[in-house]
Recover the amino acids of this structure.
């Protein structure tokens, strides 16, 4: 094991690796290598039906181990638990970072870290919501969070929430929610060099509001449509911006029916899922991003839009607003329960002068320039060092706690094995034991 306070070997666990994860992890791998460290990305499954990411090869500088070839949703929790532990035992990292606290692989990794005396890092974008209180669920979260040694979070709201759950502020780093700014900036510049041809090829109007999202209730699309209808009724037809909605999801049929019933239906365009390569052009040719979510842990589309120079009109429920969106400078914010407020923001942005829009575009690029993929790399490695320093040697996590945490999983045998693992004596046998 490495010296106290320095994580030489680091594992990062995600259910599936999409374009965002690969960009972040490649930056972290480059940074780790430059510092004489090793990083392995553990992808639990090759596919995940809840996301429409296309398959992408890992960058050559990033070591990726994929545990299951099938779909994540089709794997039983016991398999996820066992494969995660086997992989960590084989790689024997000094610290392990996991995405959130609710998945079986996160619990497996946490138990493994506690038994082996390794640093456990929580990567989280959880924030306090209006519906959360101080009940049993929050107490369970707090108990789990205190078992981690350090955390990497999105921004100010997420730091504050973890501190309220008992994580020491000095062991929390930021930078989790970043994208490959260069990818989006390059794509946007290319699109603008041939703007008319690209717009025609994509079937896009001259200037439009853009909403990229999954079609699920949290994205609050009914309020978006209500707000857009109010805006369209008040705006003269010659200066009215259409609305372009990009994405897919289980709510598509209901969304189509709702749009068809609107007077402004011809001004609303559903474009379906668009690839990672095509999205920069959609941002570059738009007039403003609109993100109306009623619940959004961060909102990576804000990062993407800003990297393309596109101002953003964002729900105040989005976790990124305090860190990224400055009203009147690079965008605006609104109450997602108030369609009238959103309609007013749409009208204001569509009515702004070209000079004002240019200033907002520049401000958007400048703000997101402070959030490159290297920010994730630095935050992750700093969290790993905090975790190694804070880890107090092998210890049990508590069988009762893990049984409660896993009560919602589909296999009771998983909860039993988790409880047994959580209460098992520290140490044990295996390749990692001999290297401790």
């Amino acid at each position: 094991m490495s010296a106290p306070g320095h994580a030489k070997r680091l594992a990062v666990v995600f259910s599936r690796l999409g374009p965002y994860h690969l960009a972040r992890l490649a930056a972290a791998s480059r940074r780790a290598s430059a510092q004489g460290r090793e990083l392995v990305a553990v992808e639990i499954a090759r596919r995940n039906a809840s996301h429409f990411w296309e398959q992408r090869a890992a960058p050559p500088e990033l070591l990726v181990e994929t545990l299951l070839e099938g779909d994540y949703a089709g794997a039983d929790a016991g398999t996820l638990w066992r494969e995660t532990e086997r992989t960590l035992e084989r790689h024997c990292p000094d610290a392990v970072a996991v995405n959130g606290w609710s998945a079986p692989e996160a619990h497996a990794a946490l138990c493994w870290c506690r038994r082996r005396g390794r640093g456990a890092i929580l990567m989280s974008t959880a924030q306090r919501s209006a519906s959360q209180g101080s009940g049993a669920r929050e107490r369970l979260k707090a108990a789990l969070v205190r078992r981690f040694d350090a955390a990497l979070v999105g921004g100010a709201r997420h730091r504050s929430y973890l501190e309220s759950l008992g994580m020491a502020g000095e062991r929390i780093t930021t930078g989790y929610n970043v994208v490959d700014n260069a990818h989006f900036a390059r794509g946007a510049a290319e699109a603008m060099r041939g703007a008319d041809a690209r717009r025609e090829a994509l079937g896009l109007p001259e200037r439009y509001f853009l909403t990229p999202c999954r079609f699920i209730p949290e994205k609050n699309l009914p309020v978006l449509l209500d707000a857009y209808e109010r805006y369209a009724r008040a705006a003269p037809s010659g200066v009215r911006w259409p609305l372009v909605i990009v994405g897919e999801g289980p709510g598509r049929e209901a969304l189509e029916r709702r749009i068809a019933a609107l007077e402004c239906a011809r001004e609303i365009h559903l474009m379906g899922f668009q690839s990672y390569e095509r999205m920069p052009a959609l941002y570059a040719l738009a007039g403003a991003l609109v993100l109306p979510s009623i619940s959004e842990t961060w909102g990576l589309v804000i990062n993407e839009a800003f990297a393309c120079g596109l101002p953003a009109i964002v729900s105040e429920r989005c976790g990124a607003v305090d860190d990224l969106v400055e009203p009147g400078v690079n965008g605006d914010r609104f109450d997602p329960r108030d369609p009238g407020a959103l309609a007013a923001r749409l009208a204001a942005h569509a009515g702004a002068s070209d000079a004002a829009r240019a200033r907002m575009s520049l401000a958007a690029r400048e703000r997101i320039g402070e959030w490159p993929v290297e920010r994730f790399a630095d935050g992750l490695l700093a969290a790993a060092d905090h975790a190694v320093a804070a880890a107090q040697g092998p210890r049990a996590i508590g069988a009762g706690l893990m049984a409660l945490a896993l009560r919602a999983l589909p296999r009771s045998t998983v909860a039993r094995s988790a409880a047994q693992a959580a209460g098992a004596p520290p140490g044990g046998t295996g390749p990692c034991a001999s290297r401790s």
In short: The chain is about 45% helix and 15% strand. The domain at 9-178+373-435 is CATH 3.40.50.2000 (Rossmann fold). The two ends are 5 Å apart (CA to CA).
